[in-house]
Structures are given as C-alpha cells and as structure tokens.
Amino acid sequence: MARAYLVMADADRLSGGPDPMELNTVLQGADMQLRSTSATFAVYTSGETPTLHLPGGGIVVGDLHTRSGTAIRHASQLPAASSAAALRRHILKNCWGDYILILPEANDPRSVGITRSPSPACDLQCVYSLEEGTGFLTSHITLAERLGLCRRRVDFEQVAHQLAYPGLKTARTCLAGIRELLPGCTIHLHDGTARASLDWNPWEFVDAGSRPADPHEAASSVRDAIETVVHAWAEQDGSVLLELSGGLDSSIVGACLRESRARVTCLTLTTPVPGADEREYAGLVAGMLGVGLQAQELRYGDAPYRFPLPPDIVTPVIGPLQYAVDRTMQAIADRESVDSHFTGGGGDTVFGYLMNAAPAADAFLGAGLVAGIRAVRDISAFHQCTYWKAARLTLRKLRTQGEPYGIDRSFLPPRARVPEPEPHPWLSPPARFLPGDRQRVLELSATQFFRDSCPRALVRRLRMPLLSQPVVEACLRVPSWMWFHGGQNRAVARLGFAHALPPRILARKSKGTFTAYLGALYRRELAGMLAFLLHGQLEAHGLLDGDKLRALAKGEMPRGDNAFMRIFQLCALENWVRQQSPPGGPVHR
Question: Confidence class of residue 25 from pLDDT cuts 50, 70 and 90?
C-alpha cells in the first residue's frame, strides 16, 4: 500500500473489533506498522508514509514544511510549546504540507486532538467512525473494513443531499456512519466523547487588515508562495508528470518547475472533436522546460458511464471524463516511471475568477467610492459590456446577496423533499463580509472534491500547488477586485509571472474545454445511460424523476446549456452506489 495510516481510538473498548492476532495479520499484510501508541490511540502507517515524532507523544503523519519550503524531519525544528493547542496553532500558522497531526494533551493523557492539513487538496484522506470516542480514523476505508471496524452501507439520505447540492462538500460521506475530517478541522477525543472544531479558517485571510497595498505587492506574495511550494514538492518527488491544459494555471506551475532539478515529462490531452486541442500552447511550456510535449487523444471508448471504482472512494463524483483522464494520466505516468503528477487544478478558484459583479461590489464596500468606480470599469472591460451595465449589475449585487449555494432540482421527483443543506465549517462568515469573499470561500470549499475525482492520487502523489495552504492564504489576502485589475482576469497572477511565461500564454483569457467531447459522448451514450438510471438504485430508492428521464429517451432535449452534464453526474452517483455491496452481497443490475 502507498501512503496510508490508521488511527485506532480507544481500541481496548471497541466492541466486536478485531482480536490482536487478527489485527496484526491484516496490518502486516497491508505493510502497516505500529508507529505510536498511548492510553488513547494507536497509530499505524505504511512503510512509504513519513512520520515525525513530537515531544509528549504526538506524531505527524505525512509531510511538513516550513514556510520557506524546508522539510521538517526532526522535532528540534519546531519550538517547544506549552500545550497541544499551542503547538497546533504554531504548525497551522508557520508550517504547511500534506499531513495528519495527532497531539495528546500533556495534562490529560486520555485526551487527544487529530488535525487535518488545511490544504483543500491534502494528499492524505481522513475518514472516520467514532462512537463515544471509540473507533478509527484512516486514509483508506478498506483498512477499517478488513479489520471488521465498519461495514459498507450506502447512506441514501446523503446521496439525496449530494443530488440536491452537488457542489457542497460536507463531512458526511455517502457511506452510512462514515464521516470525513475536512481540511483545517480537528477532532477532539476526550473521556468517551468526540468533538470537531475548525482550527484553520479561510475568513481570517480575507480580513481588510491583511490585504496587500497594491497589485505589485500582491503579485510578489502570490508568486513567492507558488514557487516555494512547487520547488519543495519537485525536489522531494524527483520526477513529475506535468499535466498541461494550455491555460495560465498549469503554465504557471510549469514555469516554477524550470528551476527545479526534477525530471519533468509534459503531457496534454486532445479529443476527436475540436475544442480541447491545446498542443500549441502546451508546447510553449514544454519548450520552456527543454523537454518534448506528449499528446494523448481521449477516445470515446475511454469514457464509459459504468466502470470499476477503487473501493477507497467514499465520495461519488467520478464521471466518464474524470475516469478517462485519470486512466490516461496513470498510463503515461507508468510508462514514464514518474513519481508524481503536477496539475494547475484550483486556479480558477484561488485566482479569483468570479463571473459576476461581486468584485466591483466588494470594492465599493471594502475600499470606497474611487476603488469601486475603478472596479466597475475593470469588470466592464473584462466582460466587454458597457460601463452602465456593469454598474447596474454591481448595484444589484450590493442590494441582494442571494443564496450561498443553489439547489439543483433537475431530474429529482417533483414532490421529493429536498434535504436541508448540511453546513460546511468554512461557510460560516463573520458578521460583516463582502459578497465576493463569500463566493470565493464557497468555491474554495468545493475544491475539496478535486482529489475525490482523481483516483490516480491513490497510486502516486497528486500535486496541486495552487491549492496548497501557502498559496491559498496568499490568494485569499488579495481582494477580489484586484484580480481584475486593468480588465484582465487573474491579473495578479499574470503580473507575478510576467517575466517567466511566454507572451502568448500570458495574454490568454480563455482556453480549450472538453464540452464538445462531452456533448458528443452524451449523444452516443444517451440510450444506455438512461437505461442504466431507470433500472438502477437511485430510481429504486425514489431519488429520480423517471418520467423526465423517459421523456429524454423519446427525444426531448433537457433545458439549460449544461443540462447534459447532470446526466453524467447522475450516472457517476449510480455507478458508485452499485459498487458498494459488501463482499458476497448482492450485485445490482
């Protein structure tokens, strides 16, 4: 097994848990070794998983770096702390990485806090089941299953929640009794109780007091953060597959790799239909790195709507496109013998790509009349609309906030009760907040789905530098209107890397998409997908509107530009649900 861990909480009180002999047999078979133990917990990790022992019985599972990018491999690199809470605060403020932090309380050996790295794309998953403070936390749910610590059952209430709020990440997974410790959160175990807290809050970084003075200061801060993270990871990995989309975000990651000693392989994807071919621009980045560009075509047969999923996937978001991309990337990584994947994932979010008037509204509210008028001009230039239309939309945004997240009722039964949204801990803004900041934090929370959609992360390190903690914090500090300075999107990132990118990439405002490919795939596979849904588990549990699906089969087109994407989304959920039967259980059609 690759990087993996298992934390047994109060194992001596587990009812129906494994006996010691069975525990050792299963864990040894999975290359899991005991790394730390106390009165409250036992920590097991795979041989490939780094650990750092801390004074007082604490342990870091995974990688930890200083803000300058230096790897922290010894406890002496951290200051002495008066309490577990103080050490946790220091690490969250002064360090970064993909890690799980386990800290017992010095004055109460039966109390322990387990914290997940704030990075939305943290390399280490953390799912758990705790009852009266007893249970497990793990990177791989299959480890807990093999030990008899849980039994795989679908939580159809949560499936209904995901159908209604597909962009809302929650701690509740679609497996009954299994929750996820979300980035920046801590689970506190004490005297048979479990309590979750938020110890890293994105709202702290959009505070007016932390804003850079001007775009140049902002650009320097963002550039330094990205370069630090990319260099640290590239040096650690040694060989990387750079996944190039041709857009600005992956190109920035590529520019930062130019100064590393890592062996870089560059790959871009094409399709049988126009719209996604970015070889011209991806080739500029590969040339800048002094390597050739590999291009791989995604065929229609590479993207089935039903396909096998790794059993450790607990969030059903992998559709045909994600499956095709993932398999292709894995195959090239295998062939080139690289250690990790590097992507520009998350750039739209961290670089403030808000497609409405919220940045201008933020400028009026947060910086005053002059800044607001300037921001309206920038927004009108970017969207190529009149100044007065941009001003009218800004005024509307100032008057009405709207819902933080919308409900998708398409293809749901007309009389179905839509569940109340389960709150994400990041989505509780302070008493006074800017509308654009709320949208940015909402979209940042949704990036926690990215790793869920990439099973290749279970095989190799999947590096998303733009979603690392230092980059996220640096970008949040930049006010939303500054990202559109001069009528450009991603203006601060462009300014920061103006010296490092080919001019043609620096000037780009758009890039290719897979929309035409997905549209063609939809037309080819619609009949099969509808039969898959109409005879599936979602329909059997009353979660779909069968009449609307049958209307599609008769040739009626769904309304909305992206309505066909909803069918792919439903198939992703159905495909996952059908594969959740326990070993020996029923196999659904």
Answer: confident
Report pTM: 0.95
Alpha carbon distance 473, 312 (integer Å)? 30
User: DSSP readout, 212-273?
Assistant: -SSHHHHHHHHHHHHHHHHHHHHHHHSEEEEE--SSHHHHHHHHHHTTS-SEEEEEEEE-SS
Instruction: Specify burial of residue 274 (Cβ count, 10 A radius: 0-12, 13-18, 19+).
Output: exposed
Do residues 194 and 216 share a domain? Answer: no
* Residue 88 shares a structural domain with residue 228: no
Last residue of a domain, one of 170, 200, 230: 200
Confidence bin at 560 (pLDDT 50/70/90):
low
Band of pLDDT at residue 586, cut at 50, 70 and 90: very low
Q: What is the span of the domain harbouring residue 334?
A: 208-349+445-506
Q: Is residue 60 part of a domain?
A: yes
Mean pLDDT, residues 94-98 taken together = 98
Asked if 365 contacts 403 with a C-beta cutoff of 8 angstroms, the reply is no
**Residue 14 above 60 pLDDT?**
no
Sequence-separated (6 or more) residues with CB below 8 Å from residue 464: 121, 343, 344, 345, 346, 450, 451
Q: What is the pLDDT of residues 400-437, one digit of tens each?
A: 877 777 899 999 999 888 889 998 999 999 989 999 99
Is a pLDDT exceeding 80 seen at residue 526?
yes
Taking CA 458 as the corner, what is the angle to CA 16 and CA 11, rounded to the nearest 5 degrees?
A: 20
Give the 3-state secondary structure of residue 44.
Answer: strand
Do 220 and 245 belong together in one domain?
Answer: yes
Q: Are 440 and 206 in contact (CB under 8 A)?
A: yes
271/296 Cα distance (integer angstroms): 8
In this structure, the answer to whether residues 246 and 320 fall within a common structural domain is: yes
Residues in contact with 475: Cβ distance below 8 Å, sequence separation at least 6, in sequence order: 222, 350, 351, 352
Q: How far is CA 417 from CA 161, 541, 545, 571, in A?
A: 10, 13, 13, 21
Q: How far apart are CA 1 and CA 111, in angstroms?
A: 30
Whether the Cβ atoms of residue 408 and residue 566 lie closer than 8 Å to each other? yes
The pLDDT tens digits for 99-112 are 999 999 878 878 99
Looking at the fold, whether 100 and 236 belong to one and the same domain comes out as no
Measured CA distances, 363 to 374, 387, 397 (Å): 9, 15, 12
State whether 108 and 221 are in the same domain: no
Strand partners, 44: 6, 34
Closest CA to 572 of 474, 413, 455, 456: 455
